[in-house]
């Protein structure tokens, strides 16, 4: 009886560790201001001064950024909620000025994993700043949370943000 109990405990712990590892593998990863600057330096010869929030999608197989329209189409299929569609319309940015390769990205930001079809970068604001802008756009925090929630669950892409 003790052996069965011990086996059940080991199986339960193994399953929990496996689920946690898989959940961590699909989550949205924040990499901070310094790596944000390294990312922009790797994708653009110009000094990037993006507007916030900004959302970019990079195709790792083709080694090019999706156009605004392509990114909106890809991401638009993930959720039909009107808030999501509004968020995409306003937050997906034009990436025509961006050009890079997987090797350049990996070299500039070694923590990036380019092991999925898409890399999604969400250039966001820290939570305290979101609260400050809440008066100008009442559902800003809700949009931020929705975006983070959806990006955290994608299997076809690896998602990164500037801040948690």
Structure description:
- This protein has 164 residues and is of the alpha/beta class.
- 50% of the residues lie in helices and 13% in strands.
- It contains seven helices and five strands.
- It has helices at residues 2-26, 32-43, 68-76, 82-91, 102-108, 127-133, 140-151; strands at residues 29-30, 54-59, 64-65, 118-123, 157-161.
- A five-stranded mixed sheet has the order 1-5-4-2-3, covered by helices on one side.
Question: Can you describe this structure in just a few lines?
Answer:
The protein has 164 residues and is of the alpha/beta class. 50% of the residues lie in helices and 13% in strands.
Given as residue ranges, the uncertain stretches (5+ residues, pLDDT < 50) are: 5-24
Radius of gyration: 18 Å
Order of helices and strands: HEHEEHHHEHHE
What profile does the largest beta sheet have? Answer: 5 strands, mixed
Q: What's the helix and strand layout?
A:
Elements: H1 2-26, E1 29-30, H2 32-43, E2 54-59, E3 64-65, H3 68-76, H4 82-91, H5 102-108, E4 118-123, H6 127-133, H7 140-151, E5 157-161
Parallel strand pairs: 1-5, 4-5
Antiparallel strand pairs: 2-3, 2-4
